[in-house]
Amino acid sequence: MAIKSILSMNAFDQSNVGSLPEDIKGETQRRLDVFGSASVLFFQEPIEVVKGEGCYLFDNRGNKFLDCYNNVACIGHGHPRVAEYVGKQLSIVNTHTRYLNKVVDDYAEKLIKTFPKPLDKIAMTCTGSESNDLALRAAFYLTGGRGVIVTSGAYHGNSYLTTFVSPSSTNGKVTADFVRAVPAPDTYRIAPDVLADKFANDVEKAILDLEAHGIKFAAILFDDIFSSDGVFADPSGFIKKAIDVVHKHGGVYIADEVQPGFGRTGKMWGFMRHDVVPDIVTMGKPMGNGYPMAAMVTRSEIIDALKGTGYFNTFGGTPGAAAAGTAVLEVLQEDDLINNAKDAGDYLRAGLKELAKDHPCIGDVRGAGLFTGLEVVKDPETKEVDAESATLLINRLRYNNVLIGAAGPYGNILKIRPPLRFYRKDADFFIDAITKSLKEIGK
């Protein structure tokens, strides 16, 4: 089976514009006319979104959809605290960080307090791509190397450099000589008692291969929920041996927290589930609940490695961004959304595992907090992937008012990743919808 690129998963087939309902056909064609053939839309019938509230989105027809895809609006779509804080700040001033501003510095201090020592320095960016790009640059300067290790289905951004470390963007292929991809720690197919050793051994082999080709090792970069690889969370702590190998060979561990960060896994930061402290942490999407902001957090020694060139980003860390970020941190704590992520996530997975007893196409249900992977297979004994049925299920769920995406190299894994304002009642809604959808596609 061919490996898919991350953007091709559940993508609208542009050749089908003519068969769309009239009320969506014109808007779809308008998008393609302006954005061109490289633009990507979801679902076999695209959706025009006009409003969001909590963990729900509303389309132009008045339909209400449970959003099980979106980790950007982590504290909920259209959150009034974010709108209030950002609106107020934009009416006062919104400029860059070459000027002192208490809103910016207050936010930076609050964010740093969520990290363990010695992670106490921050650089502000606008996107996760920029954060990962900067983290790699810092690792190169610090170590004097340029060799990078990622997992085989990783996605870390769409800048020139981060595309090289994102095999999921290039159909699973590694397109740079300084990058090595190791197999993802597939917790569905690898026994738990050998998982940590296998991952560590694969990492060491990759380091030695880099060095055998005259490329000094600099860093390993992965997100600790392995989201694009297929969502692999447990057992807690299994990444530690690999990190020890990285440090033994003089490299740094960059934790990409764009997906698992800000409470999604039931901890503030995903790496906390594994009892490790990264050398560099990157973050993005959920940081501003839709306001474009991102950051890199690290220790003094590594931030000092950038002194030769310095770092400045015109829109990174503006007062407007800091206002949005402040709202997110406040609401995460006040509304107990991190504990809710664990409770609602555990409840959802328990319900899906129960559902799997009657639907053998559900090969595995896994994850942590409000990040769940549901693997669709042809046979639970052979664990053969079934990407076609996964696509049918995703598009059927769309008509049963649930929005969801795909993960894994073949797109056969449902990536269930709702805003953190997702409660047990929403989990019940999802389980009812997927039960109905499975029956409708004959699974």
Secondary structure topology:
Layout (H helix, E strand, L loop, with lengths): L21 H14 L13 E5 L2 E4 L4 E4 L12 H11 L11 H11 L8 E5 L2 H16 L3 E5 L8 H5 L14 E4 L9 H21 L4 E6 L17 H9 L3 E5 L23 E4 L10 E5 L1 H5 L14 H16 L2 H20 L5 E7 L2 E9 L4 E2 L1 H13 L2 E2 L1 E3 L5 E4 L7 H17 L3
Parallel strand pairs: 3-14, 5-6, 5-7, 7-8, 8-9
Antiparallel strand pairs: 1-2, 2-3, 4-10, 9-10, 11-12, 12-13, 12-16, 15-16
Structure overview:
With 443 residues, this protein is an alpha/beta fold. It has two domains: 14-75 and 336-440, Aspartate Aminotransferase, domain 1; 80-334, Aspartate Aminotransferase, domain 2, CATH 3.40.640.10. The chain is built from twelve helices and 16 strands. It has helices at 22-35, 80-90, 102-112, 128-143, 160-164, 192-212, 240-248, 300-304, 319-334, 337-356, 387-399, 424-440; strands at residues 49-53, 56-59, 64-67, 121-125, 147-151, 179-182, 217-222, 252-256, 280-283, 294-298, 362-368, 371-379, 384-385, 402-403, 405-407, 413-416. The strands form three sheets. A seven-stranded mixed beta sheet has the order 4-10-9-8-7-5-6, sandwiched between helices. Strands 11, 12, 13, 15 and 16 form a five-stranded antiparallel beta sheet that branches. The model has no long low-confidence stretch (mean pLDDT 95).
